[in-house]
Specification:
mainly alpha
Length: 85
């Protein structure tokens, strides 16, 4: 697993946020760090979309859906870090 590559471009290493969550190659803290990076990248892309600098409405909708999924997985990981079993 190339953690640096995942941090630079999470979507190129993991097909979905759910795949990242299911990975046994990363610790929960590493997953959290990658998800936070992915979330930041998606928020920047969404801001560019809103300013009319990027893609079509279909692309904007895909970004919003992916951002929602990243945020959801991040919430689950955060809950697990707060309540270790």
């Amino acid at each position: 697993m190339d953690l640096e590559g995942a941090m630079n471009n999470p979507g190129s290493v993991f097909v979905t946020p759910e795949a990242l969550s299911a990975s046994s190659e990363l610790t929960a803290k590493e997953k959290r760090a990658v998800l936070l990076q992915w979330k930041d990248q998606l928020q920047q892309l969404q801001a560019a979309d809103e300013e009319g600098m990027q893609r079509s409405e279909a692309g904007t909708g895909a970004t919003s859906d992916l951002l929602r999924r990243v945020t959801s997985v991040l919430s689950h990981i955060d809950a697990g870090l707060d309540n270790p079993r």
